[in-house]
Amino acid sequence: MASAGENSTPPQAAAEPASPLHEADAPLHEPVSFEDVSRAKYLISDGIVVTPCHKGHHLSKMCRMELYFKKEIFQRTGSFKERGARNALRRLTSVQRRIGVIAASAGNHALGLAYHGQLLGVPVTLVMPKFAPMTKVQNCREFGANVILHGAHFGEAKERAEEISVKDGLKYINGYDDPDVIAGQGTCGLEILEQIPDVDAIVVPAGGGGLLAGILLAVKTLRPDVQVIAVQAQNCQSFVRALEAGQPVRSDVSSTLADGLAVPVFGKNSFAICKNRVDKTVLVTETEIAVAILRLVELQKNIVEGAGAAGLAAVLAGKLPELEGKKVCCVLCGGNIDTTVLGRVIERGLAADGRLVRFMVSVLDRPGGLAGLTALIAQCGASVKDLFHERAWLETDVASVQVKCVVETRDRDHAEELRVALAAVYPLVWGSELAENKLCLTSKRPH
What is the pTM of this model? Predict the structure, then answer.
């Protein structure tokens, strides 16, 4: 923990006694205690939003459970990262506050640190990889941070930040494994217990582990009976691999919608807290994340980034059947998704939902040929979203033209009705078969 020798923070808030059962199972010499979380709640209370925890009525019915959402998307910079950032800054010594801090981040941690550094008068230097979204880079600069663009990926940015930290004497604040950051994130768990006193389970997205560790520490101390379930993206399984190895190890990371969870090595301090407390860990696919984002937009009217939607993705995918009939809270940990990405994600969600379908048919290349196709689509109650003619690269007869279509439907059953109607009239290639990019003619002549 940060040295208290020169710390001018207010006195520690009174902490509730830890559960004997919980403490008996806890590892010795943990880097963060429940008292640290309790202190953090007091220290950050003047600058952090107590975010709402709303019941999702439509999604509760859909998932057959009483489903609540802890909306960290309503923090000033759009994510839970502000909690840990502010606590870490409040715990600095007077010398550290004067010299300043440094961190490496491509997104939410950078925003949280820059914003609260400005509020508290602490100089903040951020090393961001060159691929970092320019909107986030610009926002960090507007919050007064000194932003350095360096490296092709987060690892190179982190190495540069650590070099500057040593050279200039700046305290490096790890966005997911700094003990003060973990303690700050734990205040989210305290709020959930206050807002839903009889909660049965909390579903938490896990990347580097700071949020998961903080919530576990808070919740398992006060309510050891509450299940805390970790969710990771299938394309980045750092916590799963750490549990298998018994310690944090490097895991492969692929591109994922949940980019906020794409941390190749789970935090060492976070793992010490999580390994004996977490009740279950599940993985979600890219399609499941996309569908969850779509559901939140349509039914909750909330825009949530991929990492923030991971918990709901696990619920919607049926990966937590034991929670049926129970009172469950999903943490929507962040809402900073680029608008261009959001558009693509919604379309992917619609496709996975059976509400956006693609197909290719062969029609006669003569007046009225295309009109007949669109008339049939209209008769089925579907709507053409995109259409493309292919004439030059065909293996069919010269009197025909291939037409590739993207069509909006109500649901999977409606899409199937359309498929049957088209197949009765035209040679048809449907959905994933288009990957072959060929239309194999049947004996049926196109209309």
Answer: 0.84
